[in-house]
Amino acid sequence: MAKGESMEQQRHVVDNSSEVDFFTGESSIFGLNSFEPVLRNRSNALDLARDQKNLLKRVKLSIANSKIKSPAFPGNHDMLYHDDTMPSSRLEQLMLQGKPNRATIEQHAWNPEDRSLNIYVKEDDPLTLHRQPVAQSTDCIRGKVGYSKGFHVWKIVWPLRQRGTNAVIGVGNSDTQLHSLGYNSLIGWSEDSYGFDIVKLKCFHNAKQSEGWAFPNQINEGEEEIDKSSIPESIYCILDMDEGYMAFATDEKYLGVAFKGLKGQVLYPIVSAVWGHCEISITYMGGLQPEPPRLLAICRKTVRQHIGKRNIYKVLKLPIPINLTNFLQFK
Q: Which domain of life is it from (predicted)?
């Protein structure tokens, strides 16, 4: 490290001679300039412009996420049966079936016996927790039910003015730590939990050994800049234990897939809070039993995997009808 240069400055130095693969987190010996001869040889000017644009976007995202090593980072995994940035048909199916009855909702509520001592579940409202005003403390609570299979959705209601510096929602197993000194994003700190900090707009898993990543990602042109006010009071947690991913949504927008690689675990809803007297509610929206994917979805996933994530834009060049092209692009 150069004299007077901070670790933060060192972390953002990127050697132009190497490219960091956004999807694997690994470096290669090929830099951006090594693609230029290939691009120059393209006869079609539109193809050239599109390739350059996609390449630059990949490199920029690669640099931003080059330190990510977490196995839960979505880019480290195979594609899903649906577009990561779009809700699955199972979410629509679940929301159309209506809310469960009150008894079922309370069965999936906060667990008053599985919490930090600085948190209690309100007697007159078993769906809502209250955190005591304890300084320099981060406190968590788990839900009553852990999920190992099926498709599940619950809604978290967390007032904007009761979030403080660290407000984290997500899932964790039965070993997840429920209290720590100081203010931090405790959910996602170890390999036992997966947390989305709705203040910092970052996802964490095993953060003591790996860095978090920005979420939700702003990768589409014309999108408004994402800030903490974009996460409203109500946010939906979407857990698919059959495909092994977790996603988030608001009443207005699907935020995308935040974590992958969750199969084979038993995971509970969980939050960590630092704001004194904050009150956070959970409402179970329902679940769907495991079911095999449709044959059409299997075929699409197979074709997209064969093309590869880095070349998926080339699906437009396939000699197939426009309807199939649109299908492969989840349109």
A: Eukaryota
